[in-house]
Amino acid sequence: MKSLPLLAVAAMLLAGGAAVAAERPSFDELLLSLTSGSLGGLIRPQLYPCWNVPAGARDAKELSVRVRAVLNRDGTAQSATIVEPGRVSDPLIRAAAESARRTFFDPRCAPLKLPADKYEIWKVIDVAFDPRELL
Description:
single chain, globular, alpha+beta, disordered N terminus, Fusion Protein Consisting Of Minor Coat Protein, Glycine Rich Linker, Tola, And A His Tag, Chain: A, Domain 2
């Protein structure tokens, strides 16, 4: 699915659905794009308090990791895996990635509070953990 800049989406909505872009997504694609894009804003604040970034990290940019989680309807995690396992050969990245993965199971941050009626959208999610967002 091709994502559109937010301004293009707003223009399409304001234009009453008139063709503003060369390729126009279906309503379902638009809804999915808007909803899944806003999920990060719902999920990261719930998980970040449980994420322990390694002390003395050289470059916060390099410690950015992604975790894919399969969630139950109640917001608990069935599984959580590191999306780019090849990057974890560096001990600091491995520590950041494992800590990010564990946040999904930490009782202080789980279960996630997500809209139950959108379960089909968030049952499998990729969450980017970026230590620069903690500053």
